[in-house]
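SAMPLE LOG
Freezer: B-3
Tube label: C17
Construct: single chain, 246 aa
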Amino acid sequence: MDEALQEKLTLCKLAGINKCYDRILDVATSKKWTYAQFFNGLLDEELLSRENNRFIRLCKKAGFPTVKTIDEFNFLEAPFIPKDKIIKLMDCSFIEGHTNLILIGGSGVGKTHLSTAIGVEACKRGFSVGFFTAASLGNKLVEMQESLALNRFIDKLKKIDLIIIDELGYVELSMDTTQLMFQIFSERYENGTIIVTTNLEFKEWTKVFHDERMTTAIIDRLIHNSKIITCNGPSYRYKQKIQMTE
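STRUCTURE (predicted):
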């Protein structure tokens, strides 16, 4: 064996690249690979393994209620969803540009599925993601404030590439919670990306945040650099349920 290749293989084993060593060796033996082919195959397998492990780790940290993919979404059952716009978002370039995404539509139209699918794709591409419902994020902020850990929690959120806030509008927030949520929107303004799913038009957001000036300030920061997609149509979730029972 070439000494340089032997040295590289030894370094690979010392670095822990040995989980797939025996399997690749069996393939190399059966196919009569050269040492160079064996080395390349070993590296390719290890890189794939590490990417998969990173994806699993990022998905776990994201806190998705369930893992959804874009392939599982039936656009034929939801023709009111602009498929072309959604597919373009799957390259996640909007995250790099700190562009926000707002999905507006009634209950059951697929907003959570779509936002989760985008989040999952972001994890595949190595972005860190945090998934919260508006209510759970509000409760977490209050909890952290009461335990004197708010600054640490906000610093943690700052490091997340994409924050998904789901179901904004289903639960009214207290004034204290509104002020804490405003801090999150302010901290991420032009510094991070947020996806918001909501059943309310912007003019109705005062039902959630109560204070009109605070609501205006939140909306201004959120939509300054954003993509807004309206999802108006019958319940996608209800259609799926009917099909399952037929």
